[in-house]
């Protein structure tokens, strides 16, 4: 286990704790807000909360694993010999990344056939992207990391293409007052997801030891907050506006639970 | 306790954690979705969530037991001497397998008499199947394992026969738009349940030590995810479609909980 400085140890420690609190709070918010949107958008909010809830669980575990890997006593950080289990991130992404795409698809309220075909295609590509990235993440050398990273980029490019081409057409059919928000949600997905490969490539820059460990952990943590809690907030806003816009047509009235 | 390699230890460790997160997330999803289906289908979703909730509890316990059986320190895995409690799986199945059959029966909305007679017959056969399988699972020798495995197969064959003959007639009376989904749910039940005996027979192949332990744990874990969370998602989809189809007839309007 790479030795980290007391500052690096505390930074990562507090970032994990912060993210657990953020994800758990986001979960409560999304689930409590379900009754304030039309029934058609409730599954999107349910799934937004699942994503942050699953992430909260994994940040709790990763925090515990970080604490087990080091002791910070008398001002000195030392490695305990227990491995820091980085795999929690990949296990988390395997579950949450396909779900993030599902919430984006659901909030658009496409036809049943479109919803199911897009869910299967984008969900499978997302799972493949995560699975291909993992062997590189745990590899000790840069060439192996670069090989798997590049393979993982192929489904990523496909997802981006689908988001901008396939969903692009559907966005034009959304109500005028939400088109802009849906575009923002898509852009947030693209930008935050694009941040992960940058973090993944940090070791290429020749950084080593505690600095690379800290940079990777903080980088992935920021990306997770934006991609999960941030996207969920946009999904909530889109759901509220679409519910209001459709109220006149469907006779739906937003009401308290 | 069989010695496992660091790779095998981490694979099983992460698979148990992944499955806990999946089952807990599935439970939240099924219970939150109750308000989106007609009252007649809410019990099916309640029970789908019970099955995954019970499984989440057992995967939490089995994860703890795996961690207690081994230490992974300084890159070396060693057995602590504490037994890995495999019985959690059988305890889980004794509760969840009859409930899985109940959710399948409930979502079909048969007559009260049919529902109760099928529940009793299929539920008892499922419990018998689990009870007969356990003595073989803990047996040290192959002949004993094969004997109990074969006895356990008798109620299994009866369940399959009931699913395809008895439920077959009822499926033809389902609304046209869900017949296909109900057939898929039955096929998923059959295929995922058929996977358990294959895993059970892994020791027959002459595998030993850490490899057989890892193969059995990963095999049962995959089967559990498909049979419990996977079936639950199909039950949810069937419930939503049947609720929509009956909305015109029963005057049911999807409304907030």
UniProtKB/TrEMBL annotation, chains A, B:
<keyword id="KW-0812">Transmembrane</keyword>
<keyword id="KW-0600">Photoreceptor protein</keyword>
<feature type="transmembrane region" description="Helical">
    <location>
        <begin position="146"/>
        <end position="164"/>
    </location>
</feature>
<dbReference type="Pfam" id="PF01036">
    <property type="entry name" value="Bac_rhodopsin"/>
</dbReference>
<feature type="transmembrane region" description="Helical">
    <location>
        <begin position="44"/>
        <end position="60"/>
    </location>
</feature>
<dbReference type="InterPro" id="IPR017402">
    <property type="entry name" value="Proteorhodopsin"/>
</dbReference>
<feature type="site" description="Responsible for spectral tuning">
    <location>
        <position position="100"/>
    </location>
</feature>
<protein>
    <submittedName>
        <fullName>Xanthorhodopsin</fullName>
    </submittedName>
</protein>
<dbReference type="GO" id="GO:0010461">
    <property type="term" value="F:light-activated monoatomic ion channel activity"/>
</dbReference>
<feature type="transmembrane region" description="Helical">
    <location>
        <begin position="185"/>
        <end position="206"/>
    </location>
</feature>
<feature type="site" description="Primary proton acceptor">
    <location>
        <position position="92"/>
    </location>
</feature>
<feature type="transmembrane region" description="Helical">
    <location>
        <begin position="90"/>
        <end position="108"/>
    </location>
</feature>
<keyword id="KW-0157">Chromophore</keyword>
<feature type="modified residue" description="N6-(retinylidene)lysine">
    <location>
        <position position="228"/>
    </location>
</feature>
<keyword id="KW-0681">Retinal protein</keyword>
<dbReference type="GO" id="GO:0009881">
    <property type="term" value="F:photoreceptor activity"/>
</dbReference>
<feature type="site" description="Primary proton donor">
    <location>
        <position position="103"/>
    </location>
</feature>
<comment type="similarity">
    <text>Belongs to the archaeal/bacterial/fungal opsin family.</text>
</comment>
<feature type="transmembrane region" description="Helical">
    <location>
        <begin position="218"/>
        <end position="238"/>
    </location>
</feature>
<dbReference type="InterPro" id="IPR001425">
    <property type="entry name" value="Arc/bac/fun_rhodopsins"/>
</dbReference>
<keyword id="KW-1133">Transmembrane helix</keyword>
<keyword id="KW-0675">Receptor</keyword>
<dbReference type="GO" id="GO:0007602">
    <property type="term" value="P:phototransduction"/>
</dbReference>
<feature type="transmembrane region" description="Helical">
    <location>
        <begin position="12"/>
        <end position="32"/>
    </location>
</feature>
<feature type="transmembrane region" description="Helical">
    <location>
        <begin position="120"/>
        <end position="140"/>
    </location>
</feature>
<keyword id="KW-0472">Membrane</keyword>
<keyword id="KW-0716">Sensory transduction</keyword>
<dbReference type="InterPro" id="IPR018229">
    <property type="entry name" value="Rhodopsin_retinal_BS"/>
</dbReference>
<dbReference type="GO" id="GO:0016020">
    <property type="term" value="C:membrane"/>
</dbReference>
């Amino acid at each position: 286990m790479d030795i980290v400085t007391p500052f690096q140890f505390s930074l990562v420690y507090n970032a994990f704790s912060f993210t657990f609190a953020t994800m758990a709070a986001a979960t409560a918010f999304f689930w409590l807000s379900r009754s304030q949107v039309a029934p058609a958008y409730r599954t999107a909010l349910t799934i937004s909360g699942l994503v942050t809830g699953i992430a909260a669980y994994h940040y709790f575990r990763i925090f515990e694993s970080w604490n087990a890997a080091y002791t910070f006593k008398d001002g000195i950080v030392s490695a305990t010999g227990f491995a820091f289990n980085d795999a929690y991130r990949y296990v988390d992404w395997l579950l949450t990344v396909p779900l993030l795409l599902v919430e984006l698809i659901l909030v658009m309220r496409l036809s049943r056939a479109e919803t199911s075909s897009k869910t299967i295609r984008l969900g499978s590509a997302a799972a493949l992207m995560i699975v291909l990235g993992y062997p590189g993440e745990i590899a000790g050398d840069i060439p192996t990391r670069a090989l798997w990273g590049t393979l993982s980029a192929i489904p990523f490019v496909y997802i981006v293409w689908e988001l901008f081409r396939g969903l692009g057409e559907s966005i034009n059919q959304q109500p005028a007052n939400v088109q802009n928000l849906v575009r923002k949600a898509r852009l947030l997905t693209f930008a935050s997801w694009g941040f992960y490969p940058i973090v993944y490539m940090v070791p290429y820059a020749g950084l080593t030891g505690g600095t690379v460990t800290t940079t990777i952990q903080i980088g992935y943590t920021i990306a997770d907050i934006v991609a999960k809690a941030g996207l969920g907030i946009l999904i909530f806003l889109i759901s509220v506006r679409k519910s209001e816009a459709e109220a006149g047509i469907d006779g739906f009235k937003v009401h308290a639970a």
